[in-house]
Amino acid sequence: MRDFSGELATLAKRVEEAEAYLGLPRLRAELQSLEAEVARPDLWDDPDRAREVTTAYGRAKDDIDLLESLGGRLSDAKTLYELAVEEEDDSVEEEVGAAVASLSRELDALELRALFGGEYDERDAVADIHAGAGGTDAQDWAEMLLRMYLRWAERRGFSVEVDEVSPGQEAGILSATFIVRGRYAYGLLAAERGVHRLVRISPFGAHRRETSFASLDVVPFMEDASDEVDLDEKDLRIDTYRSSGAGGQHVNVTDSAVRITHLPTGIVVSCQNERSQFQNKARALQILAAKLAERQRAERRAELDAISGPQGDIGWGNQIRSYVLAPYQLVKDLRTGEETGNVEAVLSGELDQFMEAYLRWQRSRRDGG
Q1: CA end-to-end span of the chain, whole Å?
Q2: What is the CATH number of the domain that holds 165?
Q3: I want to staple 215 with a disulfide (CB 3.0 to 4.6 A). Which of 160, 164, 314, 335 is the partner?
Q4: Which domain holds residue 347?
């Protein structure tokens, strides 16, 4: 029988640490309080509050169930191993090994949570993609980035609402706005905020090697963000236009798309994929409120550059990551040094290694500071 004692002891320590950083006693007290609220017959008289309570209840219960499951499975594996050693029974070695490997994988994923340090990391995210320097290639690259993040969200089981897509002049897109809904969507996507650089043989024109740029910006999305900001109608310019239908589930044939410009800040948001002008305006106002709320929080903390991400041009010298397709294949993050030669997998949404590397890099900088 293989000696599993060291691995089981390490797993026990990791489970204990997980209970500490997730705050198991606090979660149990929170769940008890939330259970009383969920049971109230008038809970849904206030739908916004009801959604907030039921979401918090579900998350607390999921965390408690996960920690209890890990503890129970670890206890079963230890008992099975100890009995096998006592009885000199090698027949369960494979079963114990599989249990140890499974627990280790789940703890690897769980420990990622300890790297989140932001107040809004658990929230949904509003993401914007913009084509930068590089002409048609950059617009095509922006569309590739949109596809990459949609596939990443699908891999993680997140839902996505594509609210606006502006087509490029010849190919690709000029910009896109989408909402990613899922636990830690903002905390994960914040790792991707910045300028992304692509080097490849251009499929357009002279078919020579070209460098193009596109950017991703992300802010936390909250349904009640309008409670944090005061939106004055006189500060808004609201334009309507005919939707292109790009990225949506249907094509509008009326001028139902809405673009809102917040005149004091110059922030522009658009929405075109809801079924009516009224719905598009309501969604655009939600997105605008989320962006303004993030701006206000950043200003209050006097860390606007750090919170809002790179403010420079979407071009040379500002990129956070390079994607090289020719003359060799490599994706490299210029902040963390994380890299891989499997470019196709990254462009198909396999981004977790880069996000985790960024979170670890960010934690080390925070701890060092």
Answers
A1: 47
A2: 3.30.70.1660
A3: 314
A4: 124-368
